[in-house]
Amino acid sequence: MLILGRKDVESVLDGREDLVLDLVRDAYLVHADGGTALPHSIFLRFPEPEHERDRIIGLPAYLGGRQPVAGFKWVSSFPGNIASGLERASAVIVLNSLATGRAEALLDGTVVSARRTAASAALAARKLTADGTASGVTLFGCGAINFEVLRFLVAALPELRAVTLFDLDPARAEAFAERIAASWPALTVDRAADQDAAMAAQPVVSLATTAARPHLTTDAVRPGGVVLHLSLRDLTAESVLAARNVVDDTDHVSREATSIHLAEQRTGDRAFVHAEIGELLREPGRSVDPDRVTVYSPFGLGILDLALAEAVRAEAARAGLGTAVSDFQG
Questions:
Q1: Which segments cross the bilayer (predicted)?
Q2: CB of 69 closer than 8 Å to CB of 51
Q3: What is the distance between the alpha carbons of residues 15 and 45, in angstroms, rounded to a whole number?
Q4: Torsion over CA: 260, 264, 269, 272 (sign)
C-alpha cells in the first residue's frame, strides 16, 4: 500500500494544469464511449438539525481506456468548517488493483477533488463559449473551488483578463481578491455590489457556493453567457428550464435535490437537458447558443478523481514519494 499525503499530491499536480485538463477530457471521452462503471454516489447525511448542510459522499468508479483504474472517493462537505478556519471539504481516495482487487494506494483526495472539478468547469467554458474564448469570469462564492476554477480558466482561456467577485462575506471577497493579485497580477479584479450585478458582469459565471436550496435566477446573465453551476443547487427550476443545459451525466445529476432534479420533478422528464459534456467534447468546434444562457451542471463523476489519482500514484511511485506499507493488509 502506497500512502500519499496532501503535500505529495500537490508536488505532482502543481503547475500541471494542462495535464489535468487532458486527463479529465480523456475520462469524459471514455465515459461517452461506454468504457466506465459508475454506480450512484452514496450520500451520508445526519438527522440532527445542526448538521442539515453536512454530508459525506462515497463515489465508487471504474475508468477504462488506456490507463484502467478502479477505486473509491470518500469526500465530506461541512460548510461550518469555514467559520473555524478549516476547509469546507476534505477527501481520501482508495485505488484498487485490477489484478487482485486489493487496495494498493491511499491518497489525500482534497486537492484531486478540487482540481478535477475546476478542470471540468474550464473544459466546459472553452467548449461552450464563442470561439472558445471569454474575456472575463464572475466567481460567485470566494472559496477553494472557485480559486481552482480560476487557475484552470487561466490555463484554458488565454483571453481571460477580468474577474468579478461576489460573496456574502465582503471580507472574504477582499481576501480572495488579494490572493488573485498575488497569483495572477495581470488580471483585473473587481467586486460586484449585489447578486444581479455579479450575474451580469461577465460572459462566464462560476457558481461555487454552499447553498442547499435554490436562491438565484439567470435573469441577469447575458444572452449567450455560460453559467458553470458547480454547486448544483443555486438555480431555480424555472431558470434551468429556460436555459440550454449541459451536464456530465444526466442520470447522476438528476438526483439529490439538485436544480436539474427539481426541474425534472417539475416537468416529469429530462427533455430540457441538451447534451452531456463527453458527447460535445467528441465533436470538433464549439457548441454555442448566442441567444440563450447555457448552464453547465456537472454532478462530479468519480472517474475524474480516479484519472487524476492514478496519474499521481504512478508519478509518486517513480519519484519515491509517499510512504509504502508492505504489511497493510497482511
A1: none
A2: no
A3: 35
A4: negative
The CA-CA-CA angle for residues 155, 68, 40, to 5°, reads 85
Q: Compute the distance between CA of residue 89 and CA of residue 169 in angstroms, rounded to an integer.
A: 19
The runs of H, that is alpha helices, within 42-194 are 110-128, 144-156, 170-183
Q: Assess whether pLDDT exceeds 70 at residue 132.
A: no
| Euclidean distance between CA atoms 285 and 301, whole angstroms | 24
Q: In this model, does residue 208 exceed pLDDT 90?
A: yes
Where does the pLDDT of residue 80 fall: very low under 50, low under 70, confident under 90, or very high at 90 and above? confident
Buried b (16+ CB within 10 A) or exposed e, 288-321: beeebbbbbbbbbbbbbbbbbbbbbbebbeeeeb
SS3 164: strand
- Give the pLDDT confidence score for residue 210 in this predicted structure: 86
CA 270 from chain center: how many Å?
Answer: 22
Beta strand 244-247 with 188-191 is unpaired
Average pLDDT of 30-38?
98
DSSP 55-93: EEEEEEEEE-SSS-EEEEEEEEE-GGGGGGTS-SEEEEE
Predicted pLDDT at 157: 94
Q: Name, in order, each residue with C-beta under 8 angstroms of 83's C-beta and a sequence gap of 6 or more.
A: none
Percent of the chain surpassing pLDDT 90: 89
User: How is residue 4 written as a grid cell?
Assistant: 500519499
**pLDDT tens-digit readout, 294-317:** 999 999 999 999 999 999 999 999
* Region of residue 190 (left: phi > 0; alpha: psi -120 to 50; beta: else): beta
pLDDT digit string (tens) for 133-190? 689 999 999 999 999 999 999 999 999 999 999 999 999 999 999 999 999 999 999 9
By the 8 A CB rule, do 198 and 142 touch?
A: no
Closest to 172 in 3D by CA, of 203, 148, 147: 147
C-alpha cell of residue 321: 514519494
